[in-house]
Amino acid sequence: KNTNYIMIKDENICIIGGGGFIGLHVTEMLTKNNNVRIIDIGDFDSKLYLNKFINKNQYIDYRKDKFNCIKKNNFDFIFYLAGNTSIIKSVNEPLNDLKLNLVPLLKVLEMIKLKKCVFVLASSAACYGEMHDSKKLEPISPYGISKLAAENYVRFYNKYYNIPSIIFRFFSLFGEYNKKQVIFDTVKKLLNDPKTLKIYNPYSKRDFIYVKDALQLVLYFCSKKNFNADIYDIGTGSTLSILDISKKIINLLNLKTEIILEENRTTYDPQIQIADVKPLIKEGLKLNFDFDNRLKKTINWIVNNL
Questions:
Q1: What's the confidence (pLDDT) of residue 46?
Q2: Is pTM, for the whole model, over 0.85?
Q3: 129, 271 Cβ separation under 8 angstroms
Q4: Which helix (H) or strand (E) element contains residue 189?
C-alpha cells in the first residue's frame, strides 16, 4: 500500500496552531477538500504564509477568540498542533513551557468532552528521552515532560469522556516553513560563511522525516475511524548523524567547506532517537522515502526564504 495523500474529505476541521510549521502543511493538505478553520495561538513568522491557503474568515486569533469558536461550532476533527517547540526554551523557562503546552490543551479538552469530535494530538519523540537500548518513556527535558503529560491528559479524556483521540509522536521533522532546527540552521550558517562549519554534537543521531511524508502517515490513520487514544511514532525507522546530514547539505550546496567538530552535549540532548515503525509497516504503509530529494527541496526553500 501507499498513502498517496490519503485525505480526510468533506469534514469540518479546526487546526489549532495552524500558523506554525506543521500547521501550515496540515492546512495546505486539508483546506481544498474540507471546511477548515485555523486558530493561531503564537506569534510565528511562518503564519505569513497562511494566506496562500485560507481566507481571512477562516483565520481566528486566539488572543481575541479564546477558543469560543470551538464552543460555537461542531467540528469533526480538531488537530492540536500548538505549543512551545523549543527544548532549550523549556529548560530555561519550564513554567512557560508548562503554560504553553498544557493549559490551552486542557481548555480545549474541557470544551469538547461533550461534543465527541476527533482529537488529533501532535506529540514528540522527546517523550522518550535517550533511546539507546529501550523505548522507555523517560523524558530528559521539561519539553518532553510536558509533551508526555499532554498525551496522558488526552488518554484520560478519551477513557473517561469517550473523546475519540489519536496521538502522533513526531521525530525530526524538516521541510518548508521551518525556520529553526539543524537543517535550517546549517544552511543559514553555510550561506553566511561557506568556508567553515562548526558542528556541535556531530555524532548525535536523529530520525529525519520530511513533513509532508509524516503527515501522509497521519492522515492515513485519521481516515481509518479508529480513535482509542492510540499512539504512533512518526519517523522513517532509520537515523542520520548530525555530521552526515551536514555533509549532505554541503554537497547539495556545492561547497568545499571545512568541518570543525565539537562535542558539546548537554543533559537534555539525547545521543540517538529512532522511531518504532513496526506498527506502520504492519499497516502495509510504504516507508521508502526519497530523503535526498526532500532535503534538496527543503534547502532550496531555505535559500529562497532567508
A1: 56
A2: yes
A3: no
A4: helix 181-192
Residue range 176-199, pLDDT digits in tens: 999 889 999 999 999 999 999 999
The H or E element that residue 15 is part of is: strand 12-16
Are 11 and 223 in contact, with CB atoms under 8 Å apart? Answer: no
Distance between CA atoms of residues 204 and 244, nearest Å: 10
Residue with cell 540532548: 269
Exposure class string for 25-48: b at 16+ Cβ within 10 A, else e: bbbbbbbeebebbbbbbbebebbe
Q: What are phi and psi of 64, to 5 degrees?
A: -100, -35
Q: Which three cell numbers stand for residue 108?
A: 480545549
Phi, psi for residue 158 in degrees, rounded to 5: -65, -45
Beta strands in 156-227 (DSSP E): 165-170, 172-174, 196-200, 205-206, 208-210
Query: CB-hemisphere CA count at 13 Å for 266?
Result: 8
Nearest to 249 by CA among 204, 190, 203: 190
Provide the grid cell at 244: 552526515
Residue 3 pLDDT > 70: no
Residue 127 in contact with residue 139, Cβ under 8 Å? yes
Are 301 and 212 in contact by the 8 Å Cβ rule? The answer is no
Confidence of residue 42 (pLDDT cuts 50, 70, 90): low
C-alpha cell belonging to residue 275: 522511531
The strand pair at 205-206 and 258-262 is best described as: unpaired
